[in-house]
Amino acid sequence: MAETSPIRAVSSAPPQHQQQQQQQQQQQQQQQPSTSAAAYARAQADLVAALTGTAPVPPGFDPDRIEIARNALLRKRAGEIARHWPRLRAELGEGFQVEFAEWAAHRPTGGAWRDGWDFARSLRARAVLTGIAAQELVERELLFRYDGTRPPRRRRAPGMARVNGHLLVQIAGHIRLFRL
Fold it and tell me: Among 18, 76, 101, 136, which residue's CB has the most CB atoms within a 10 Å radius?
């Protein structure tokens, strides 16, 4: 028995080159994701694109269920915009959900505030905004700079604009409304 103990001790410790190979294999596995993980990530991205309406339904998914989920996400997104743009929601009334769903159907979200801003601008371009929503948009544009790509930034300079028979004047972050 005493003779086998040293043999076990020697055989249980792997040689130096085996340890190095094991370390290299572990590093390679950590650096390269497995093909199943990459395929899973790709399938997940395809599903998200289908849910946002920017891509077709991927194979293996029920198109009806994807459409139901997509509509639910659009309603949720419209609700968020209605909270950030209350006068826009009030002016469009019951047509708000329909108008927004048509506009947002193939656009990825940029956040409720920016989506609302882009949506309001598209309605203004089509001459749909005429009342309080037009004033809400002008007020935002007097207070903030927004080019449609970068996040809005607060304006430093004063500004003026006419809307619905009123003159809006922005000075130091405050808006004054004057009737014309």
Answer: 136
Q: Is residue 96 part of a domain?
A: yes
Look at residue 11 and tell me if it is in a domain: no
SS3 category, 179: strand
Structural domain count of the chain: 1
pTM of this structure: 0.72
CA dist 8 → 16, 20, 22 (Å): 17, 21, 21
- The domain of 89 spans 63-179
> Edge-to-edge, what's the strand order for the sheet holding 159-163?
159-163, 166-171, 174-179
From CA 102, how far away is CA 3, in angstroms rounded?
Answer: 83
- Which residues are within 8 A (CB) of 161 and not within 5 positions of it... i.e. 6 or more apart? 138, 141, 142, 167, 168
Q: How far apart are CA 178 and CA 171, in angstroms?
A: 14
pLDDT along the chain (180 residues), means of 10: 52 60 68 75 89 88 92 94 97 95 90 96 94 96 95 94 94 93
Torsion of the alpha carbons at 164, 170, 175 and 177, rounded to the nearest 10: -40
